[in-house]
What does this fold into?
Amino acid sequence: MSDKPNTLLSEGSAAWRLLAAAARTARMVVFCGIPGVGKSFLLREQLRLALAAGRRVSLLQWDVSRQAFEIPAILHRYPELQGSTHVMIRRAVGIWLRDAIVQWSDAHSGPAHLLLIEAPLVGGRMSELAYQADDRAEPLLSGRDVHFYVPTPTRDVRLAIEAARRAETASHRHARDAANAAPALVDELWQMVAQTAARLSIRVAEPLSGYSPEAYFAVYRAVLRHRRVTEVPVEEIVSAAGSPHALDKSVDELVPASVDVAALIARAEAEGDEPVAARAARWYET
It folds into this structure.
């Protein structure tokens, strides 16, 4: 681990090299994966490297975007269940998502601009990023300068991340830490990934009762088969200094406008309760 302050990865590590290259040349970087694999920490490191390279950075994050819909009128109809966002809200975020990327690209056309996205995909949480569609977002998402990174920690590192998450649950270091998935939900989402591995006939050497790096990345590679996907090996314990949500104030954030929230929910509702639930359950069918 580097002794430099605010450095989350050792310079020269495989993960650091991937992020350093993207900081200079990428148009978009999408960090995909379940909670508890280090997405937020790596996004923060990608941001630090990009700003150091003189880039102008915008952020689009699941845990931030969904909060636009968490208002009493909507939560009364579509409440959380054991810490899990309702599927109708997940779909409304997804409907907004691809249009938001197009709007960002239109407004930030120069090479200095970089969009960083954090998306779980699992259970329909921004899984629209993986789908092929006949819209203006598709050529952007499939572009050569767009990278889909899947942070894949070793078992030991994931245990350390889980321990840090439990500590965050007990004492938040940042207001947004409260939006993190609860430890029980993290376990549930891993089981969902393991079940998906079985459905996709992904065969690995280890049993799937516990976290398997091999199975985990294989599932995300299959889901992201229409994208340029790269495994980001996380082989060291990231720094616990400060919250991963403590970001530079100069960064723009893409969030649904409050005036659009009702219309986005209405568009999701128009698809029907059962189709929306089925789409979330079959998040891997892209």
The beta strands are 28-32, 56-61, 113-119, 146-153, 229-234, 252-253.
